Amino acid sequence: MSGQIVTRFAPSPTGFLHIGGARTALFNWLYARGRGGKFLLRIEDTDRARSTPEATDAILKGLEWLGLDHDGEVISQFARADRHAEVAHDLLAKGAAYKCFSTQEKIEAFREQARAEGRSTLFQSPWRDADPSTHPDAPFVIRLRTPQDGTTVIRDQVQGDVTIRNDQLDDMVLLRSDGTPVYMLAVVVDDHDMGVTHVIRGDDHLNNAARQMGIYTAMGWDVPVWAHIPLIHGPDGKKLSKRHGALGVEEYQVMGYPAAGMRNYLARLGWSHGDDEFFTDAQAKEWFDLSGIGKSPARFDFKKLENLSGQHIAAADDAALLHELKGYLAAAKLPALTDAQEDGMGRAMYCLKERARTFPELIEKAEFVLASRPIRPDEKAVKQLDTVSRGILGSLTPQLQNASWTRDELEAVTSRIAEEHGTKFGKLAGPMRAALAGRAVTPSVFDMMLVLGREETIARLTDASAEGGN
Questions:
Q1: Alpha carbon distance 148, 289 (integer Å)
Q2: Quick one: which of 103, 161, 367, 414 is 20 to 30 A from 25 by CA?
């Protein structure tokens, strides 16, 4: 198959963007983007009872947060029903499909009898070879005329060659008696019309491929390259479900994972490139291929996700990280940053992003720059501010008035004051953290002083050194 590669993601809008769906979308996006191809989006909204506009919005928002951009308009499968029906009638005209007048009751009666006699319950329509002149004036479905002997081979890039005996396949319904197309027909027609060259989807669709190939063949259309990927399991090896934790992509945004960390983690979930764990989008696009996808289900591991997220936060551009942090606050329905807080976060980002694995951890470390005077120390920090440490802070502040505001100078001044009081700087760090941040765990004291500046640093130390300053 030559020409441009075209992949697609085709979710049903019956709920949020599931983590498994997000990974399918990512694999399709990486495969197309890494080869100069197109990545298309189709909403499979033919199930009118369960499809909702809210679910479509949730899917689009999830993809947007993950940074998976698609080419062209979003295609609605339901809107193309006339085209699907047209293909069913084409197949009928070619003799590749036939009208079947068997009612549901007759089909059910056939199956019950077959079960009772221990025969195959695969329905063989008595109308398959009936003379059209014998057709009654009654409702009918259109069925595909499936070959009854030989085999269908699904040449799958992940599962290998999968062979299915044609006598195991029934004559699939293409058009219902009310004239509406079935999902299996719609998928094939849409993929063909959209020019899809590679169908990368969950392996729960593997058996569908054999039946869908019948439509491709009958229409004389190119069969796409198949790649059926294993599902995602929880840490216990069972299919991922609510009991394992969050299933919807937007929940991961609300929990404070960065999108780049999520992309990296999902890419590694069932696909590998040597021993590489941490990689950029550019590397993922360059490396991703179908041969790297494993055959067994991948296990979701929150610790690995946190670890990769921390690495992506540390590696991120400060301004981009601040932008994504604001998106997190909005998604988690937390108060937005004031202009002053945003300015402070921008200056502090270099010392906040090391060792923060999620945005809540980043915000916890940023308390010193988000808080305003008077700083109210928490329980652990209060213990650091005894009479002795307050006295040392009191003698430190005048020395800082004229110090040049550089890390080396600040380290020299604080070490000298500590020495004069017969202690080491390590003993002074705790009270300084309590005074500057009101917390016992913070970025380096000197980073906080540099970010806060001379005036604010001295004001906070003065507050803390005053008697009863907590």
A1: 36
A2: 161
Give the pLDDT confidence of 84-95 residue by residue, as tens digits. 999 999 999 999
Give me the helices (H) in 53-199, please.
Answer: 53-66, 81-94, 104-116, 183-193
Q: Which positions are annotated as active-site residues?
A: 242
What is the number of alpha carbons within 13 Å of residue 307 lying toward its C-beta?
8
**What's the average model confidence in pLDDT over 36-54?**
92
Distances (CA, A) of 71 to 6, 18, 33, 281, 417: 10, 21, 11, 18, 63
Cα gap 12→59, rounded to integer Å = 9
335's CB contacts (< 8 A; 6+ apart) are 329
For 95, the token pair is 């003799």
Q: Which residue has the tokens 């709920």?
A: 15
Query: Is a pLDDT exceeding 90 seen at residue 248?
Result: no
Q: What does the pLDDT read at residue 235?
A: 86
Residue-wise pLDDT tens digits, 223-244: 999 999 999 998 888 887 777 7
Give the type of residue at 14. Answer: T
Contacts of 333 (CB under 8 A, 6+ apart): none
Tell me if 281 sits within 8 A of 263, measured CB to CB.
Answer: yes
- Residue 274 CA to its chain's centroid (Å): 22
Q: pLDDT tens-digit profile of 395-421?
A: 999 999 999 999 999 999 999 999 999
- Residue 242 annotated as part of some ligand binding site: yes
Which residue, among 313, 180, 198, 179, has the nearest Cα to 259 in the 3D structure?
Answer: 313
**Angle at CA 197, nearest 5°, toward 193 and 200?**
110
Both structure tokens of 184: 């299996």
The pairing of strands 173-175 and 141-144 is: antiparallel
Amino acid identity for residue 296 in this structure: S
For 385, 397, 457, 458, 459, the CA distances from 465, given in Å and listed in that order, are 8, 9, 12, 10, 10
Strand partners, 6: 38
CA 90 and chain centroid, separation? 39
- 3-state SS, residue 313: helix
Per-residue 3-state assignment (H helix, E strand, C coil) for 433-453: HHHHHCCCCCCCHHHHHHHHH
